[in-house]
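CORE FACILITY INTAKE
Project code: CF-77B
Contact: R.S. (postdoc)
Sample description: multi-component assembly, two entities in total
Requested service: structural model of the whole complex
Turnaround: standard
Below are the sequence entries exactly as provided by the requester. Do not edit them.
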Amino acid sequence: MGENHTIGIPRGLMAYREGVLWKNFFENLGYPCVFSPKSDRRILGQGTARAVDETCLPFKMYLGHVMELKGKCDVIFIPRMGGFTTREKMCTRYEALPDLVRNIFRDEHMEVLSVSYDWYDRTTEEKVYLELGMSLGSTRKEAKKAYNAARKKQETWRKAKEKGQQQLLETGKTKVLLSGHPYVIHDAYMGGEITGILEKMGAKVLYSDYVEQGSAMKRSYEFSRVMPWLINREIAGATMLMRKKVDGIVLVSAYPCGPDALVNDMLIRRINGIPVLSLTLDAQSGTAGVETRIESFIDIIKYQKAGGYGNQN
Amino acid sequence: MKKKAYLGIDIGSISTKGVIINDDNEFLAECYLWTEGNPTRATKNVLHVLQEQFDQERYRIVSSGTTGSARKLVGSMIGAQVVKNEITAHAVGTTTLHPDVRTILEIGGQDSKIICVENGVAVDYAMNTLCAAGTGAFLSSQAHRLGVAVEEFGEIALKAEKAAPIAARCTVFAESDLVHKLQVGCPKEEIIAGLCKAVAGNYLNNVAKGKKITAPVVFQGGVSKNAGVVRMFEEELGMPVMVDEKGHLMGAFGIAVLAKESQEESVFSFDVADMEFKTREVTCGKCANHCEIICVYRDGSLIDSWGNRCDNGAVKIR
């Protein structure tokens, strides 16, 4: 890869969690980055056309984003993430991501740039990024500097989100926590729809991934000692921490997410005392079903606050 | 001076229900008929039936509400003051007639739900997801296969000595199960009892999964008219299950109560039943989302539209 080569980052999956780190790391090394645009129906459609039927909605969306970057960059960054510890592993989708993409688009000759790590390698994030930087021709020192600065940016971004959300907690409005994978709840086409409907009904929306990450992880070990998925740990921990601070919780899952199917069921039984709505998103075009469910949910919260029917007007 | 009355219409996928109530929540008129895939026509028919029963000398309709899956369409059609989801409508209707109710079971034509009530207000609910197994549509299709009218199911089921085990998770599996039972010479009434048991079991294991079912329990929706399913629920739950005579009208009743409580009043005329309504689905081409926008026309002029995800797709009403 030569100088001035542009790196494309698909706006999907873990980009919603670590995109700031990736972008800044590459830019610090002198490579401009470009993100694919926000999700819409067309992007999902083109991704679905290339994916096997049984895979999950966010992965189909991700493929659409990869296609969106064609011709707009020289190489696409697709990390392979296995997790760093045995109890904080990743879903198989992220473990196989670069291989899946290479294979699906094998006739289109897409250049893929990747990092790769696994919990059994006993490696660290810093180490894998230093290796990536050096493989791109930087010295160890340059790569380390680029990584450290990017990591700092990522932290600053997180802290800002966490702080913003903390302030939202103090408003008197109806507060609803949207719990789910960041690439579902922040995706314009998936979670964005739900946020839109909730806000239209006068609720303030909070997100599980904007809860202080360290405390959420700690809380997740009280929830389950053995649960192996990192992101579900963050979701479960954050939800348990927030359950007494919000008026309702919407658990959002994208069909057919295996870890969510197990963990959300357990979560519903552990969250006591406040209304919980469990939504499973599929590639349906109409929002009527979701709207009815959210409207009923908001009604439950509002009438409960009002102390009965007939007290609202 | 004419007394005030309130109209409520519940337009479901299979049936359309309408009621008119007075200030004391008494039924002045009621109607239940099939939607037959045409909510506008069904609503007109309901209005015609209600108009005949309704004493227009003594009462005047001052407020109306719609609920059910076609609530938006019919809401703009009749100019309803309140357009609300069926969960709230059912909860309001049921708690009005049965203030002490704790659990509402509802099985309709294509959906089923459970509503948990505390102190007269819904605190939790669940609805069936993608699949309509174990709803009225499931029972109808099995009745068709057995050559029995679905209305007779309950009576036949009660005659059975035991219920044949039938899987109700999926209509396809249930059907092959059912054929198998017929082939091995299982009596029809035991199969029908098995279907009723399967509906109750499927409901409790899916829709009501993880929900605490506390007495008093009220069972409503079209399937509540099936005495076989009622008995299976009572056996499974080990508590009495109440079926209200007006259970099938509860959504319409609830939305009429909400219309009354809204205290918004405007003139309602049965003339809408004779107007022409058309809906058109337009695909918005202004961005890649290609929203499907529903436009409703009354006698040729646009009266309402919805379905756009952003303002770019907003259709102007002239």
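Facility notes:
- The first strand of chain B starts at residue 3 and ends at 11.
- The CA atoms of residues 142 and 175 of chain B lie 7 Å apart.
Invoice: internal transfer
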